[in-house]
## 1
Amino acid sequence: MEAKKTMEFERFDSVEDDTDHHFRDSNGGKGFNDSRSALYKTIMKEWKILQNNLPESIYVRVYERRIDLMRAVIVGAEGTPYHDGLFFFDIVFPSDYPNHPPKLYYYSFGYRLNPNLYRNGTVCLSLLNTWHGKKEETWNPRKSSILQVLLSIQALVLNEKPYFNEPGVEGLSFFMINVEKKSCVYNETAYFRTCKTSYQLLRRPPRNFEGFVSSHFREREDRIIKAGREYMSGRVRIGYYSCKSAPSSSSAVHVSRDFKRWMKEFSPDFVEALRLNGGSASNGAGLTIMRSYFYVRSDNADEDRIDPEESPSKGGGLFKSVMGKIKKVFGIGKNN
């Protein structure tokens, strides 16, 4: 049977299996199923808003037996270092909703790829009252909604230059040239960790999204691999592969040595995961592209910087095994 395409998945749908939901044990493990209560009616209103207003890049699943729970995924937008990635959030409504905002848990897999998204799953956002902000930016029980939360994460968090979300960076306009350089370096890390997150999702997709995750990466696999190649070579600024709004430049984009090293060491595992998912890498095209990763020059690069969270190790067993096979197939010797 032909695999389902992402466009065929409902953006809003109800499901039953909540066994892997982060907040499953919240609210005493009981749903808010009294249809006569104000809370029940408020949540049903939220469902209706989502059902009628979700953009093409956000998908939500609600739970028939636990209406206090939701799961959402945001597709990373082009023009950002998060393009083609998937970002999952588990959501729970408190018992006094909407007097207090919902709680969110981000599936980080241990990677910090944004100042607002923590490794422990915390989502730092004024609208959620998890970060200080102006009164009009915080949760308003009379006006705020879960749709507003998701759109805020998409537009304000997973944005073009996430480094500027760091506290205090906005006030450094006097040193703008240096700040822009740091922003570009941050985007390298954000993109790499987005790839790492994608790899983890391919290995263990959240329940009720297994088919969607598989279809998403199968359809975008060729673009993901080619984007990584272009970024490593410095031909395209990170985030702008196949993006119409890409900034023009007559010279090559500066790429750090570490970004090239991270991607070169990680690429075999990532492409193999994409191949196993049934993308074009399974017919050899991906391997041909992957081979080019090993010939990207590192001239005029920065000194090495270490990614303390998940920089791959050349001594890793899986990496050494994969590298050994690749070198044998492509005849890459010690002097190459």
## 2
Amino acid sequence: MATCYPAPVVPGQTRIGWIGIGVMGGAMASRLLSAGYSVTLYSRTPSKAIDLQSKGAHLAESPADVARVSDVVFTMLGHPSDVRQIVLEGPKCILSSLNPNGVIVDHTSSHPALARRIFDAAVEKNCWAVDAPVSGGDTGAKEGKLAIFAAGNEDVVKWLNPLFDVMGKGTYMGGPGKGQSCKIANQITVGANLLGLSEGLVFADKAGVDKGKFLEAIRGGAAGSMVMELFGKRMIEKDFRPGGFAEYMVKDMGMGVDVVEEEGEDVVVLLGAALGKQLFSGMVANGDGKLGTQGLITVIERLNCM
């Protein structure tokens, strides 16, 4: 059976592959199943797929097996090294068996240079690749309200919009790698917001101000933000369950600090991003790398002997 592109994306006809079913990926794949799409999964830990299988998903034995029966293969992995291995390397990788006109969509927060490499490798196989990292955390993934930064061939991105619409809102960012560059800029912004919110809460607490009233008072002013809406209450209640791991912020903000040297672009001075990377590295050093990003407040509390 030939793959779908450029035929319309239709539930029940367009075959979806999904690799990476953690907190974010599992919720996103679940939404596609609920929308009526046939989904084939691969997981290095098959037991993690039980819930999605109960909703109708099929489990494959390798990334290559997923690609062989899919029109669009989504990946939502942890690190660029995982993406490289799953998509590009070895006889069981996605590109080893993706059919002509098949599309790879990488939702992982990864490196722009790797996104360009995957795009070029896909084109050589008469396929397409789109880098489309997301923002919105576990809440956005569950509610279908993710911001999706999609890059690659513009026509292919437009073709994917019915799938993106199930998960959130896709925005075309430009050629290959631009989605990843946008996500790095997003993480720099989120990291700065998390730091400001953490320090504001610690200061309010030290000053004897009720932290809940503090958040309510500033919500409608210039200090209000989506970061506050998503994480403010969690910080107060010390709910550090992860939507995204703190250790991933070290990776993401590190790519922002280091990317200019690797790509030969103009030097960008990013003092806030460098500080943010170090503070999240502090969380990892404290054994808290698997906490949610809102756990940054624990670093500020430790610095203030709280």
